[in-house]
Specification:
Residues 1-19 form the signal peptide. The protein is an alpha+beta fold. It has helices at residues 13-24, 80-89, 140-169, 185-191, 196-211, 215-219, 223-233, 246-253, 299-315, 320-333, 367-370, 433-439, 472-490; strands at residues 3-9, 26-28, 34-42, 55-58, 64-67, 74-75, 93-95, 100-107, 112-120, 238-241, 261-262, 267-272, 278-282, 287-290, 292-295, 337-346, 361-366, 392-396, 408-411, 420-430, 458-460. The chain is built from 13 helices and 21 strands. The protein is globular.
């Protein structure tokens, strides 16, 4: 049986999914006989990317607890292919509907003052449980104001949900001809009936956490993807992987032998041969030849790797047309912008509101961001790891651990943190109008002015390479599409846009 060799660079969810599916796949070749795939996975770190930042923590009772870093929850409605992948792998999920607190922080010469603005004590799914009442509402006047706020938030949320569902059902959110597909959140806010206060209080902090970006970056985020997320997750619950995402990584790696998984493997050069094979050169000096290459990395990392291939083409005297095509792909990849983010696991309760106002997820932002009426922030000061332009989210990891034993995970801390267990820096892709405009070029089967997938047998997948907000779902969707496109290159009867592998 003929063997097609495929290299996958990157071992996040996209890379592991692509490697797993291809290793298990067979296709019918041009001569009619079955073709199997031999996949080699390359990761420059010492651990697989999907669970590389997860840590094991020993609590006060001596029990070991696994902390997924960052938090890897998925929500019903939006993560359809991720749910399907987990079912296919036999991964057990735990339903976990979060409660939320929304707070603002104000600075004085001597301290930081917390003000809890809103508490939601219900679930992510449909719930009749009431909202919580912040401790600061200790007078009849303050309580009356808060109840009025609750009614206002409820009405705005219903209006936003109806608006989102309407546009989703009418197909406007995925139609490039509809005006809403070209609007940013800031553009949409100016013309919508949803109050600015509701957007500042709930929508901006919540989606700054979902997208892991600054408030200003979120204002420039395309609104269609945000509305789609709201519509698809309406009334849906959150789920976590039981025993951590390492279980997912183990199951995805199962078809690969140890010889096919290469850790500490830093790719320093790519060469495209005359017959469109790809030669990888590693930092240890070894070279390996493959029929296909999948770049399951961040788009900016893929751009750097693809630049190496373009240099090799230039050195080999390739035509100007070939060089232009590669530089065009690199330029398109560089349109995907990334923002730094930090996740800290710790036992410092100072980044939480007062005990009465604490919930599962505690979102806090600088006071001036909340009251700036969608203007750009001029405050770039910092006390913690990140500037005050960021939204800080702290997850109380285990409600059974209280007091000094409590464990928290804070993303983008804007306050200093002590009693640190681990610190993990990341980069998160943030969708922009510019990157959205070229996304179709990386989606197999989509109408586009150019198609960048598969040129010289180089393919791409990752959270950035699929429609929607760049999340785990995009990793799974793009990996499956890429595998189907490679299978179609062997067997033209396969239609990538109408098939699923699990």
């Amino acid at each position: 049986m003929p063997v097609v060799r495929v290299a996958v660079i990157g071992s996040g969810l996209a890379g592991l999914t692509a490697a797993h599916l291809l290793q298990k796949a067979t296709a019918r070749g041009p001569t009619g006989e079955d073709v199997r795939f031999e996949v080699h996975l390359y990761e420059k770190s010492q651990r697989l990317g999907l669970s590389s930042a997860s840590v094991v923590f020993k609590d006060a009772q001596g029990r070991q607890r696994l902390i997924d870093t960052p938090m890897r929850s998925i929500q019903g409605g939006y993560y359809k292919r991720t749910f399907a992948l987990y079912r296919y792998l036999g991964v057990e999920l735990i339903r976990h509907n979060y409660t939320y607190s929304f707070s603002s922080l104000s600075r004085s010469a001597s301290n930081i003052a917390w003000r809890t603005r809103f508490i939601y004590s219900g679930s992510n799914g449909l719930s009749l449980r009431p909202v919580g009442i912040p401790r600061a509402c200790n007078t009849i006047t303050s309580l009356a104001r808060y109840l009025a706020l609750v009614i206002s938030v409820a009405l705005c949320y219903i209006l936003l949900a109806c608006f989102s569902i309407y546009h989703l059902l009418r197909g406007h959110l995925s139609d490039p001809r509809h005006p809403i597909s070209h609007q940013s959140l800031e553009d949409w806010q100016r013309s919508s009936y949803v109050s600015t206060h509701f957007v500042n209080l709930i929508v901006l902090p919540m989606f700054a956490c979902v997208c892991t970006c600054t408030r200003d970056q979120l204002l420039h985020h395309p609104i269609a993807e945000i509305l789609e997320y709201i519509a698809l997750t309406f009334g849906a619950s959150h789920y976590l992987v039981k025993n951590g995402v390492k279980q997912v990584a183990i199951r995805l790696c199962a078809p690969l032998t140890p010889d096919q998984i290469h850790l500490n493997a830093d790719v320093i050069n790519l060469i495209s041969t005359e017959d469109d094979q790809v030669v990888l050169t590693l930092a240890d000096g070894s070279s390996h030849t493959f029929d296909h290459l999948i770049l399951a990395t961040q788009a900016n990392q893929a751009a750097s790797l693809l630049s190496l291939l373009a240099k090799s083409l230039d050195a080999s005297g390739a035509s100007a047309e070939s060089l232009h095509a590669e530089h065009e792909r690199v330029d398109a990849l560089r349109l995907f912008k990334y923002t730094p983010t930090v996740v800290i696991n710790h036992q410092d309760a100072s980044v939480m509101p007062c005990d009465h106002d604490q919930r599962d997820l505690n979102i806090a932002l600088s006071e001036h961001l909340l009251d700036s009426h969608l203007s750009r922030s001029d405050d770039k000061g910092t006390l913690g790891c990140m500037s005050f332009e960021h939204v800080m989210a702290t997850h109380a990891l285990d409600p059974s651990l209280t007091g000094d034993d409590a464990v928290y995970q804070t993303t983008n801390p804007i306050l200093p943190i002590s009693r640190v267990i681990s610190t993990a820096p990341f980069e998160r892709v943030v969708l922009t109008k510019q990157s959205k405009a070229v996304l179709s070029c990386f989606v197999p089967g989509r109408e586009a002015s150019r198609h960048f997938q598969g040129q010289r047998h180089v393919w791409f997948c990752g959270s950035w390479a699929a429609e929607g907000i760049p999340l785990l779902e995009g990793c799974v969707v793009s990996a499956e599409r890429t595998v189907l496109a490679i299978l179609q290159s062997q067997d033209p009867s396969i239609c990538p846009s109408k098939a699923h592998l699990f």
